[in-house]
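so my prof wants the structure for this chain in the tokens format not the other one, which i didnt know existed until like an hour ago. anyway here's the sequence
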Amino acid sequence: MFTAGFDKALHWINFDLSTSGFLSWFYGGYYTLDRKLLLAPLVLKLHPHLTKVLDFAAVALELSPFLFLLAGRTAWRAWLLIATCFHLANALVLNIPFYFHVIVYLPFVALSRFFGRPNAADGTPNAVFAWRYPVILFAVILGVAHTVQRVRGGGSYFLFIEGESVVSISLYVSLVLLALCSVLIAFDLATGIYGARLYVDRSRRGVPDLSTKINDQ
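here's what i got, hopefully its the right format
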């Protein structure tokens, strides 16, 4: 993400309204690759000033992950949510699918809050199964299979599906995956903020944190 943002910063960061990095992606996809689905036609009505703002916003987002990561757990999850919404917007407007980013973002989310059962001792969720292992295994198998196909001169753009319909199929699947990813991250972020506030409130009132006490024991 950082290397992509750095390269964009060298070419996109200027105040020349006759140029736009965002539009350079859009026009090539719209007129050459026929990416005219969903919200793509609306881009033709955007004001040049807004497209320049989008250039700056994209560069800022792609250069900032390390800062959010070092700022703490809450800040990092907030960046993940913004990044997921960014990819979702790209899928809607530029018709570029970003389904593989879901595999990258979700390991940072406490999915046990969704797929777990409450701990009888303190009410915290316990993971029902180690969800990371099947996800990693699936990603490795899929990556190896695609790599072998590419080396042999074949391959496909999306889950071994060939033909013209692959573009629309991968796009709509990516929309579903990105929407689900954004919901999971938003819920995890909100739960983390609520838990932090609850901990602070208990500390001010002198109420012991049961989860911390149990972990210490």
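also thought this was worth mentioning. Residues 97-216 form one domain.
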